[in-house]
Write a structure and sequence with these properties.
Layout lengths: L2 H25 L5 H22 L8 H25 L5 H8 L2 H13 L5 H19 L6 H23 L5 H23 L8 H28 L2 H6 L3 H14 L5 H18 L14
Helix pairs in contact: 1-4, 1-9, 1-11, 2-3, 2-8, 2-9, 3-7, 3-8, 4-7, 4-11, 5-6, 5-7, 6-12
């Protein structure tokens, strides 16, 4: 893949990842958080399921594999996105994106503790820098907000889902996994909405456009472009550019929502961005490492 095409696709997919936080926060003007997240992923999941059925992608034959896929959906879609949308009620889109995208740092820690993975020295430096960044971003808050807790929880759920995909990934077709984990997670979010909140969605042109953007562009298109780049380029090099997602999260929050760019958020975000880069980057491509491939 030539450098211009690679760069354009990387910018597109990370922009869609990061900007979804600001778009989601706008959507909360028209819907309750869990209900909006549930609608987003049920719609995206249905579309993806139709696609994988039409393309005749290989589906699991064992109930156990279906259960594993459902567990990944519960963590990756319901856990991560449920926490993200709840966090957006009390913190900025930029702060939520920064906290959520600390997940590669947590993968290193949890992978070492629970799965015996071994990582390079520079990846551990990335973890340390990330912890410093979170401390600066969160520690400078004059008022502790519950959204910070949910933002961090979204990163924990994402890291757990990533480790399960690492362990079970060979059991699934990537596109089938994405389709059904979205659908499963979306259904769980709708059920949680019924239990934990008064489900609200104000149907108008703006809210429908937001829902379609989140479901199609920020979910399906973003996923398709990301995996296309992973499959047609060096995975380690590609994953190292994941640091652009929180950058676009902060930028879109500023442009779309007029969010203030606090010095603490900028400095803490820079530490986290460098940490994410170090955790994902493969500096010695000829040697095997436990580098995260998201």
């Amino acid at each position: 893949m030539n450098i211009w095409k690679f760069s354009a696709l990387i910018v597109l997919t990370t922009f869609l990842m990061g900007s979804s936080f600001a778009v989601g926060k706008i959507g909360l003007h028209y819907a309750s958080p869990l209900f909006l997240a549930g609608l987003r992923f049920v719609l995206a999941g249905i579309i993806m399921v139709v696609i994988v059925l039409v393309l005749r992608r290989p589906h699991p034959q064992s109930p156990t594999i279906w259960l594993k896929m459902g567990l990944i959906g519960a963590l990756q879609t319901a856990g991560v996105m449920g926490c993200v949308f709840i966090s957006l009620r009390t913190i900025t889109a930029g702060e939520s994106s920064i906290l959520t995208f600390t997940n590669p740092l947590l993968v290193v820690v949890l992978g070492t503790i629970f799965m015996g993975m071994r990582y390079k020295w520079y990846q551990w430096i990335g973890v340390v820098l990330g912890v410093i960044g979170v401390s600066i971003t969160v520690g400078a808050q004059i008022e502790w907000k519950i959204g910070i807790v949910f933002g961090l929880c979204s990163a924990v759920f994402w890291a757990m889902a990533t480790l399960l995909v690492k362990r079970w990934g060979t059991l699934f077709d990537t596109w089938v996994l994405s389709a059904y984990q979205m659908l499963c997670g979306g259904i769980i979010l709708l059920l949680l909405s019924l239990l934990l909140e008064d489900p609200v969605f104000i149907w108008n042109k703006e809210s429908i456009l937001i829902l379609l953007w989140l479901s199609i562009f920020s979910s399906i298109v973003q996923f398709a472009v990301w995996y296309y780049v992973l499959q047609h380029g060096d995975p380690g090099k590609t994953s190292s550019f994941l640091f652009l997602a929180p950058f676009f999260g902060v930028l879109s929050g500023w442009l779309l929502l007029g969010e203030m760019l606090y010095v603490s958020s900028i400095v803490g975000g820079l530490f986290i961005i460098v940490g994410i880069y170090l955790v994902n980057r493969q500096f010695q491509s000829k040697k095997r490492s436990a580098t995260l491939i998201k």
